[in-house]
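HUMAN: Spend a minute on the protein record below and explain its fold to me.
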Amino acid sequence: MHLDHQMKTWQKRLGLDDWNLSLRLVRQSQLEPNSWGGAEWDPASKTGTIDVLDPRDYNLHGGELRLDMECTIVHELVHIQVSPLDARDDEVREEVVNKLMAALMNRTCPN
């Protein structure tokens, strides 16, 4: 499935490739109102599920639909990535910020 490949690609890019995440398409009735996706995860076991709105419930088609579904995947992965920021551990927070920076830059930075 193309979406699974996208998720694995973004997991790696966001430094979450050590997580065991699954992806599932869900109907609008299974999501919060005005939502296109959702995620549940367990940081202790590094497992989770990302829900993406089923194409049958979208008002987009073709390339716009595929792009929006990818955006939802990335959005939910970033939620997982930043969840440790709730911790007051400066080292953990810095690690998360650096992973996001590397993902956005599409490379690691010299410093």
Summary: DSSP finds three helices and three strands in the chain. Strands lie at 20-26, 37-42, 47-53. The first helix runs from residue 2 to 13.
